From TrEMBL:
EC number: 3.4.11.2
Name of the protein in its database record: Aminopeptidase N
Domain annotation Aminopeptidase N-like N-terminal: ranges: 63-231
Keyword Metal-binding: yes
Reaction it catalyzes: Release of an N-terminal amino acid, Xaa-|-Yaa- from a peptide, amide or arylamide. Xaa is preferably Ala, but may be most amino acids including Pro (slow action). When a terminal hydrophobic residue is followed by a prolyl residue, the two may be released as an intact Xaa-Pro dipeptide
Top-level taxon of origin: Bacteria
Amino acid sequence: MTTRATRRPLLSAALATALAAGLAVGAGAVTATAEAPAVDGASGIGDPYWPLDGNGGIDVATYRIANRYALATKRLSGRTTIELTATQDLASFSLDFLLDVSRVTVDGVKARSDKTDGGHELRITPARTLAAGSEHTVVVAYADHPARYSYAGERNWLASRDEVVAMNEPHMAPWWFPANDHPLDKAVVDVRIRVPHGREVISNGELLGREVGRHSTQWHWRADEPMVPYLAFFAAGDFAIEKGKHHGLPWLVAVSERLGERDQAASMRLMRKTPAVVAGLEKDLGDYPFSVVGGLTTGLDPGFALENQTRPTYPAVGGSATSLVVHELAHQWFGDDIAVEQWSDIWLNEGFATFMEWRWAESHGRRSADDVFRSYYANVDATSGFWKVPVADPGADKVFDAAVYGRGAMALQALRNRVGDEAFWRVVRTWIREQRGGNGSTAEFEEVAARESGQDLASFFDAWLRTPTKPAATATNGLG
């Protein structure tokens, strides 16, 4: 976020705990080694920043979203089919969802549903207990006006009578589909959105087709690789669309026709840079992690760009804002392919994406990343609040603070200075390889850095990530 071949997701924390507790995995189900009463799945996955995010007792494999959106009235209706595995014996479980629900079924049988925890949790009680390890199909039907709702101080529905874009971080899914809304539970997302004739819909992944009805058209998009719920998006309105292939990688970009003629032209010039930027990033980071790429410029005013998986979204920023495209596409590796373990690990997303902006400038004949790093250090006074944010655990109220971006990037360049260029890029590529398709934590990154560099980096990371003061200008801190 900026003010950012099919694989099964890694085991969720809840499922890993269940397995460690002695549940045996069979071809179809998990059988407990001892009798235990069914429980109500927890209303959160265990992240201290947002305790209601995610849910206990379930691991989602697939979301099949089928929605209708009326631009003129801003009403969204539809149903989402969720394929999930119970990771405990469950009497009930929750999904994160804000809208009004009319019906829920579990395996085709009507289930009871209730809103709890201020309306954020959809508590589902199936007709029968779900056994740990068993797989189930949950269907939720709904209709409502998403703009009515807020959660965690966020009112995230961005829409006019002519355009809508579902984009935000750390939360977006509960405004348009029920989800296990935390980075620990990635799932394949299949999106069908029906809109009035003449309007386009853009979403993640590949456009699989359009179904034309009497008064409306349904657009069908699907991303091959599992994703975190907040990275799923759709936009509906009037868009100019271009597509092609670059070195075998399919790309598709779109620009809102609600923008003025000059802004449209400039935005399309910027969006067309997407495949070349990916190719440039691959030189440092290795293969792009997904099967398609693209971008969308909205005619609305979100105030930020966001790294939606395979297709980041941008405000209209002109045709020369290449560094913004670099930032959001770097997130495809750092934040999308490798998601955070907890929201306290957010610097691993934003610090890396910001550092890759510096690296892009360096590799394209402009200022070196070290020059940018040392300029930051020299010009931010020791009394600045910038140094008071411990970026390894900034707190929910500072999760997107400037220090998370800037000090996070500085920590990476300082590491590069400390261990040397060869060892630094070995650390980065090992991190990408070992965490691919999963989640990463600060502690895990520190372990990789120490292992691949052969150095004791404990005091270095304490100084850059955890100590709320300006690091000393020493060689140990990468400032020699």
